[in-house]
Amino acid sequence: MPENRQSIHGEWGSRWAFILAATGSAVGLGNIWRFPYIVGENGGGAFILVYLACILLVGVPVMMAEILLGRHGRQSPINTMRALPGRYGARPAWQTLGWLGVLAGFLVLSFYSVVAGWALAYVPYSAAGTFTGADTQAVEQFFSQLLASPGQLLLWHTLFMALTAGIVSRGVERGLEKGVQLLMPLLFLLLLVMVGYGMGAGAFTEALAYMFTPDFGALSGKAVLVAMGQAFFSMSIGLGAIMAYGSYLSSRSSVPGNTGLIAGADTIVAILAGLAVFPIVLAAGLDPGSGPGLIFVTLSYGFGQMPAGAFFGTLFFLLVSFAALSSAISIMEPATAYLVETRRWRRPWATTAVAGAAWLVGIGSVLSFNAWSGVKLFGLNFQQIMEYLSTSIMLPLGGLLIAVFAGWVLPAQVTAEELSFPAQWGYRLWRGAIRYLVPAAILVIFINSLGLLG
Length: 454
Ligand code: PFF
Ligand code: NA
Fold this sequence. Notes:
InterPro entries: Na/ntran_symport, SNS_sf, YocR/YhdH-like. By secondary structure, the protein is mainly alpha-helical. It has helices at about 15-25, 30-40, 45-75, 75-85, 95-125, 135-150, 150-170, 175-200, 205-210, 220-235, 240-245, 255-285, 295-305, 310-340, 345-370, 380-410, 410-420, 425-450.
């Protein structure tokens, strides 16, 4: 296989290029928008503990497996999963894994872009001082009015998707890398500022108690499934995004070391987002379980109260939009790479097709907040179905298949060489986890969520 394949970022020039791109993929709406709102919906402490366990015991080994599969296959995920089974005497049916990932990517991108559109919309409104001094009611009303307007949502959804497609089609080379390098630390700093604000002006002690005192009795089987799905979603694993990025990774780079950095950064940002949101929620008497609007209402209220809040708010929503962009780009990579590699499409056309299809499905999500809000299946509207199906079902299912393939189909010699753990015991731990712990945990959580395990 050619060692000089071009990624959308150009060839990874260094170990850092991969780490930056993968961190850009991981850190996004999952940390800042989704983590706080599902923590709030699922009651806090116990949920967070299960989430952290899923990251460590399931997410980390699966991320290593995804990177190693990508690097060993050196093609788009679909073609990697077409080539590798034959090489190791497994059935061609394994290629379904690649297609499952592409499908999951479409579903994720379709609603991801709509929510990223909300963040974009909040940039000009924050700058105009809309939230300055506003009370909680006014801030809540602003959010519901935004959701009630399909035209506005469509506009911002379209803008975000066009931005994503524009960047992917141009093959950003070093542009995005530089952006991630500068803007991610800035987002991190700004989150620290907000945590600091929460310490001074919010109900910080209560927030700590809320986030870190587990009450396992209140945790349903379904909540555990949601926590596991969130671990996959947040780490960008289970659909081939990290596999695609891994296919451009130099064979000298240490997979365990890279994984540790990416997973660590991703987890810290999620916890910081929680620490920024919940002190305000609890001090202002807002509802932690209010759903997907949680950060938009809470944080814009907080910005409205803090000194120089219009400035910080504008900067924050800009940085969140950027974080969403660097994630959306990675969601498009598996499908785009496939069209370019196998169908010989030119990159701009491939990008337009992928983004266009996801944009179209996204319109369903736009309408689910207004015109179609009454249209429900199993009590879920269109957007909720997309989110649940992709995040809680398809990503863990992808992870299960990745684990079985990497643990049982690939020979130990191949995985040991690809992973290049610094010590033998590290590899043994990984292999034990990927063969037994990960598949068992995912299966048990799936079955348990159906309420079959008492
Ligand atoms: N990890 C991203 C986030 O936390 O916002 C979302 C995401 C990116 C999910 C890439 C899946 C993916 F393949
Ligand atoms: Na994330």
